[in-house]
């Protein structure tokens, strides 16, 4: 958990430059990454304020209608 939290915090600045992961358009990388990020609280991982660009990316994309529609009932209850 600690290693994952530190790794995500370390790559957080990447999310300041583009709307999506190193891209102006959503890609398969985002489609793979966002479900993992959605599950962080269930895994007991809380990102620090230093990860603000990543937290902003998460908030922006979790609010997308398509992302919300992709969640199962169990996944919706995770947050």
- Give the uncertain stretches in residue-range form: none
- CA radius of gyration is 12 Å
Structural class: mainly alpha
The SSE order reads HHHHH
Count of beta strands: 0
**Portion in strands:** under 5%
Q: Indicate the percent of residues in helices.
A: 40-55%
Largest sheet: none
| DSSP helical segment count | 5
Morphology: globular
Q: Please, what is the average pLDDT?
A: 96
Oligomer: single chain
Distance between the termini: 18 Å
Quick overview of this protein structure:
The protein has five helices and no strands. It is mainly alpha-helical.
Describe this structure in words.
There is one protein chain. This protein has 79 residues and is an all-alpha fold. Helices cover 53% and strands 0% of the residues. The model has no long low-confidence stretch (mean pLDDT 96).
Write the layout of secondary structure elements.
Blueprint: H1 2-11, H2 28-38, H3 52-62, H4 65-70, H5 73-76
